[in-house]
Each structure stands twice: as C-alpha cells, then as structure tokens.
Amino acid sequence: MLFYDPADMAWLRRCLEEKPAGQLQDIERHKLNAMGAFAEAQTCRRLVLLNYFGEGRQEPCGNCDICLDPPKQYDGLNDAQIALSTIGRVNQRFGMGYVVEVIRGANNQRIRDFGHDKLKVYGMGREKSHEHWVSVIRQLIHLGLVMQNIAQHSALQLTDAARPVLRGDVPLKLAVPRIVALKPRVMQKSFGGNYDRKLFAKLRKLA
C-alpha cells in the first residue's frame, strides 16, 4: 500500500536542504526524487523498479495498477526527441530541473553563463508546462532511455536505447500526466471527513 501526497515531498525536500551539503545530501536527494518518481509513475511499476536498479528494459508486468488501469497516451515521439536532444546538447552534465529550464527557454544567468541559450533546442518546449516536461523525462528514465548518474549530482545521461528514438526510427507513446497537486481546500472538500482520520494517520506512519 502506498500513500503519497506531493505536499509531503515538498516538506521532505525542505528538510533535506537543511542538511550539510555534500555527497550524502546528493545521495539522499537522489533517493527522494526516485521515490517521488515511483509514486507519480505513468509507466509499469515493475519497469520503474527494474530500471532504477539497472536491469534495463523489460516487458510490462501486466499486474500493477498502471498496467491494469493505464493512463491516457499520446504520440510522444516529438517530446521525447526534444528532451533527449537537450540532454545531449548540454553534454549530459545536468539534472532534470536544469534540462527542463533549457527546454522551456528559462531566462536566467546560469543558462546564459553556459551558453545554452544559444542552443537550437533552447525554448523548443516553452508552450508546455514545467510539470509536463518533468513527466516526459521521468517516463524516459522509466523506459530505460535515460539514466541519472548519482555520482554526477543525478545528471541525466542517454542510454543506447535512446538512439533509435532520436533518429525517429521507432514510435513512442507517452502517458498524459494524471497526478495534479491539489490545493488543501480542494482536498478538504473532496474527502469531506468521510474516512477515519485517526486510522489514516496511523497508516501513513506505517507507510
């Protein structure tokens, strides 16, 4: 059983930032991000776990909640090519947040310092949200097309499986994100008290 709330992830990230900077913090951040990615996965849970442990691409299990109730899909080849190309053009040295900023054409000093505002891919995905591109990249990780190098601050790096996608040799379906952070008052109205709050609190502690 998995209990997940995006607000909890934000709180955990704030707690993590209070710890001393260094390799241990990088490792803990990587683990936290992986946990969040698993909870928000739009890909077979089995594939997510296997790719996290470096097992490579496998067939979907057919038994997890994602397989039994698959999300709506769309032709994701163009989005995947934008994301993969951006990762490659920044020399596979940066994490997800930075790659998304380049894709969306963020106007900040760090991007200008590296000259990435001059890249062809800069701003190619500005019409889509930050959350959309995070979902795309997470799915590419879960599908084994991208890996996160924990030794390099979780830098995104391409795998061999990314090449045919970049060339457009294979079709690629991606899932439309279906997890949206709810405002507290919306959650209160939605659940309305029709559950045992004490039991729920105990179960969350066990999770």
Automatic annotation (TrEMBL):
Domain of life from the UniProt record: Bacteria
InterPro entries assigned: RecQ_Zn-bd, RQC_domain, WH-like_DNA-bd_sf, WH_DNA-bd_sf
Residues of the RQC domain: 75-178
Enzyme Commission (EC) number: 3.6.4.12
Entry keywords, A to Z: ATP-binding, Helicase, Hydrolase, Nucleotide-binding
GO molecular-function term, one example from the UniProt record: hydrolase activity
Top EC class for this record: hydrolase
Annotated GO biological process: DNA repair; DNA replication
The protein's name: ATP-dependent DNA helicase RecQ
Record organism: Salmonella enterica I
Biological classification of the source: Bacteria, Pseudomonadati, Pseudomonadota, Gammaproteobacteria, Enterobacterales
